[in-house]
Q: What sequence folds into this?
């Protein structure tokens, strides 16, 4: 007849053996997944390397200049294309937002022969109070 202590040790040895077998299979599965993830990382790093090389090629200044001259009709700016503030139309429209007001006249007179145009300024009421974010 088998004593209870011997039966206990046999069952314990069987449980430990099954636990080790199960742990070994789980570790192998984790190693396989790690290998697969490392392989994927390597493939992604190679793809990034190729994309960086392609980006460097595409952004070469000489290549971009050749493409711009071939596809864009760019020319240097001529002085006749530039305007002055005096040539801008003044807002006389009554539908202008109330937050815009004409700039107050300066206390200094404009030099003779020159016109000082009114430049719209944002009214103080339209600005958020100090210390607030201006979000309602």
A:
């Amino acid at each position: 007849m088998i004593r209870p202590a011997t039966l206990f040790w046999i069952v314990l040895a069987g449980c430990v053996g099954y636990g080790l077998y199960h742990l070994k299979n789980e570790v192998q599965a984790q190693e396989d997944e790690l290998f697969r993830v490392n392989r994927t990382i390597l493939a992604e790093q190679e793809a990034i390397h190729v994309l960086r090389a392609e980006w460097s090629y595409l952004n070469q200044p000489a290549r971009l200049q050749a493409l711009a001259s071939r596809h864009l009709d760019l020319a240097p700016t001529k002085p006749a294309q530039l305007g002055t503030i005096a040539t801008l139309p003044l807002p006389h429209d009554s539908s202008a937002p109330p937050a815009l007001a004409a700039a107050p006249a300066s206390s200094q007179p404009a030099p003779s022969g020159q016109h000082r145009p009114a430049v719209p300024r944002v009214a103080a009421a339209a600005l958020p109070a100090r210390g607030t974010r201006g979000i309602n």
Summary: Residues 122-127 have pLDDT under 50 and may be disordered.
